[in-house]
Every structure is written in structure tokens, then in C-alpha cells.
């Protein structure tokens, strides 16, 4: 065989051997990580505790907003206070107020209000009264003005955004007219939807500020989220929650405490029009007990209907009065280095210029230090 023939034979032999990838890693190193399989896209998860080391919060970048209600011992609004009368403490450290505004019936701070209406079967007994009450609140809090907007969410087995953010109250009241209760109760899903799934108004949450009104009994049977998760979400979004309880007279529910907790921790409160719609003003209130739980007034009578309607109307008026006559305070946190690691920060608002125990101050109990979560 000639030299040229040998060369050709060897080249063909080399080409027939499979190629082996070149090893570039050094001895003892790990092989390159394989890419993870794609993860299906899902809806935004509920708030979870961070797995990262706690961050130091130095303040100066987040302004905390505090709607504050002040009443005397008889429940009457105290409306003559000035900025100098208030004191704010953040984790026990006094703060400087950077913004002060007092709502009055004629001039009030701009708001965006979510009306969350319970359509579960538990609302059936007095549905028409609360349907009318919801429309009354919508008309009273949305005066056809772009500075006062609202949206409507109904919840039964699921939560549904019925009307997106608008300044036209007729769109909301028309939708309320078409509502019919029946099914389970997904209250927590409704709060989650209010904080994540609606059209924003420029300037939220400072101007306008965010309010939610829940018309329901606090019962939840069908939500994907927990009570703690939606309270945290509302707090991170600087939402103040109020409630008009639909719990019937003589009834009790462990879930009523949940509605109270949502409201109190965010700076609001719950009206209970059916707790005692008769009081001592009804003759025979104590002497004529009834299996229906209504004492001297029986279901179906004119007196009974009038008493229920009057109680619901008083609760609606009280709630509207509070929302429209508040003090609005803001401050940029001056943080004590010893508490800079805290994400959930306690707030205390008081009126040192007045005698201790002479007034009741209602405001948010705490806030989260990582800034405002943007709605989707």
C-alpha cells in the first residue's frame, strides 16, 4: 500500500469515530446546572412571609397615611382639633406630622371606595333592607364627582367585580338592583380582588385615599385566601375597611369577630344594625319574649319592618358620617435604629391636649415598612 493510500485510510477511520464533548471544568468542580423546566404562569400569590434576611428600614422614603376618627364618650364626633393636638408614635418613637387635613361634611378628602356586597344565602332574610342601604351609601358617598369614585364587588361562592372604578354612582346602584343572594361566601377573595383587580385612580392611596365597605356578616366558606393574608394585603395597600353587619337579631356567628378584626386593624369599624334594633323604646321588649327573637314586634308586621329599616338607616348614616368627617394625618417615619429591622410597625395616635379617657381615637394599629403595594 502506498503512503497516499495509508493517509486516506486513516482520515476515513478518524471521521467514523463519534465526537466527544470537550471537558472544560477543573478537577473537583460540579457539572453545569441544567435549566429548570418551565413553570406555568398563575395568578399573583397571596402575601407570604419573606424568606430573605430582614431588611433595615431607615424611613424617609415612605409616607404613612392615617385617617383618624375622634369621638367623645357618647359617640359624637370631635371636630375642632388642630394638628398640634395630635401625637403619633411609631414603635414608641414620636413622629413629626407632615400633612394634616380635616374632613368636613362640605369639604372632604378625595376617596375611592369599594362596596363589597355579600350575596350568600345568609343574606336572604333581610336582603331588601341591605340592598337599599348599599344604594343609599353609594349615592351618599359618590356625588357625581371624579374626586369621589367607587367600584362594586359581589361575593357568594365566587367574588366578581361587577362595576370597575367610576365616578358614576348610577352604574353601581343599577348593578345592586340586579343582585340576588344565594350560594356560599368568598369574602376573603372579594377583599383580595379589591386590592389587586380594578382600575386605579391617579394619586392613590394618598389622594384619593382607599376605603372598603363590606355589607355582610363576615362569614367565609369558599375563599382561596386566609383572613391573615387579606388583612396584610389591605394594610400594605393602605386600605381602611368598614362594615355593615347583616347578622340577624338574636343570631351569633364566630365569623362576626373576623369582620371586626379586619375593620379595627385597618382603622375602621363595623356597624351592627340588627344587634338590637328595638332597644328599650319598644313596649314589651323585656316582658314579651318571642320564639322569633323579636319580642314585642313580630315578623311581617308594620312595626317590625319599620324598626329594621330605621336601624339599618341609622347605621348607614353613622358610617357615612365617619368616612366624611375624619382627620387625615401623614408622616415620614423617623425610625429608632433599635427597631429598624421590623417590617410590621405599631402605630399609636393620641390627643395629649385632652384629658385622658375623655375621647376615643380610632386609627390603623400598624403598617408595613416596605412601601405601598401597587394594584394590578
Mean pLDDT: 80
Look up the CATH topology of the largest domain.
Answer: Rossmann fold
Unreliable spans: 1-55, 280-302
Quaternary structure annotation: single chain
Secondary-structure element pattern, one letter each: HEEEEEHEEHHEHEHEHEEEE
Beta fraction of the residues?
A: 15-25%
Q: Can you name the CATH architecture of the largest domain?
A: 3-Layer(aba) Sandwich
User: Which strand order does the major sheet show?
Assistant: 7-6-5-8-9-10
Structural class: alpha/beta
What does this structure look like?
This protein has helices at 3-15, 127-141, 169-177, 187-196, 227-236, 256-266, 302-323, and strands at residues 64-72, 87-90, 93-94, 97-102, 111-118, 148-155, 159-166, 209-216, 239-245, 270-271, 327-331, 344-350, 359-362, 366-368. The chain is α/β, with parallel strands linked by helices. It is globular and about 50 Å long. The model is unreliable at 1-55 and 280-302 (pLDDT under 50). It has 2 domains: 64-103 and 328-368, no CATH class; 111-324, von Willebrand factor, type A domain (Rossmann fold). The strands form 3 sheets. A 6-stranded mixed β-sheet has the order 7-6-5-8-9-10, with helices on both faces. Helix 2 packs parallel to helix 7. It has 7 helices and 14 strands.
Please sum up the structure shown:
The protein is α/β, with parallel strands linked by helices and 376 residues long. The chain is built from 7 helices and 14 strands. The protein is 24% helix and 22% strand.
Amino acid at each position: 500500500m502506498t503512503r497516499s493510500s495509508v493517509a486516506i485510510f486513516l482520515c476515513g477511520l478518524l471521521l467514523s469515530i463519534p465526537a466527544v464533548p470537550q471537558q472544560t471544568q477543573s478537577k473537583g468542580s460540579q457539572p453545569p446546572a441544567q435549566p429548570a423546566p418551565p413553570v406555568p404562569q398563575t395568578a399573583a400569590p397571596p402575601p407570604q412571609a419573606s424568606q430573605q434576611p430582614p431588611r433595615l428600614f431607615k424611613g424617609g422614603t415612605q409616607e404613612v397615611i392615617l385617617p383618624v376618627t375622634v369621638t367623645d364618650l357618647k359617640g359624637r364626633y370631635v371636630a375642632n382639633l388642630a394638628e398640634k393636638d395630635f401625637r403619633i408614635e411609631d414603635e414608641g418613637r414620636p413622629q413629626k406630622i407632615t400633612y394634616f387635613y380635616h374632613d368636613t361634611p362640605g369639604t372632604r378628602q378625595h376617596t375611592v371606595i369599594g362596596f363589597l356586597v355579600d350575596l350568600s344565602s345568609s343574606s336572604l332574610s333581610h336582603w331588601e333592607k341591605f340592598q337599599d342601604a348599599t344604594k343609599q351609601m353609594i349615592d351618599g358617598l359618590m356625588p357625581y364627582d371624579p374626586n369621589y369614585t367607587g367600584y362594586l364587588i359581589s361575593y357568594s361562592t365566587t367574588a366578581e367585580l361587577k362595576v370597575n372604578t367610576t365616578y358614576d354612582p348610577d352604574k353601581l346602584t343599577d348593578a345592586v338592583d340586579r343582585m340576588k343572594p344565594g350560594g356560599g361566601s368568598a369574602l376573603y377573595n372579594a377583599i383580595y380582588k379589591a386590592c389587586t383587580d380594578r382600575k386605579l385612580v391617579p394619586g392613590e392611596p394618598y389622594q384619593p385615599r382607599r376605603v372598603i365597605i363590606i355589607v355582610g356578616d363576615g362569614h367565609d366558606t369558599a375563599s382561596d385566601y386566609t383572613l391573615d393574608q387579606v388583612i396584610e394585603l389591605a394594610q400594605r395597600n393602605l386600605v381602611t375597611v368598614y362594615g355593615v353587619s347583616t347578622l340577624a337579631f338574636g343570631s351569633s356567628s364566630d365569623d362576626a369577630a373576623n369582620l371586626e378584626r379586619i375593620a379595627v386593624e385597618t382603622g375602621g369599624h363595623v356597624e351592627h344594625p340588627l344587634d338590637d334594633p328595638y332597644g328599650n323604646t319598644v313596649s314589651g321588649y323585656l316582658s314579651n319574649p318571642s320564639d322569633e327573637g323579636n319580642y314585642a314586634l313580630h315578623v311581617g308586621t308594620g312595626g317590625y319592618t319599620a324598626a329594621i329599616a330605621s336601624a339599618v338607616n341609622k347605621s348607614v348614616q353613622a358610617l357615612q358620617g365617619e368616612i366624611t368627617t375624619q382627620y387625615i394625618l401623614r408622616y415620614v417615619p423617623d425610625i429608632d435604629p433599635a427597631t429598624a429591622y421590623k417590617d410590621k410597625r405599631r402605630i399609636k395616635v393620641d390627643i395629649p391636649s385632652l384629658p385622658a379617657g375623655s375621647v376615643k381615637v380610632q386609627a390603623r394599629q400598624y403598617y408595613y415598612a416596605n412601601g405601598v403595594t401597587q394594584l394590578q
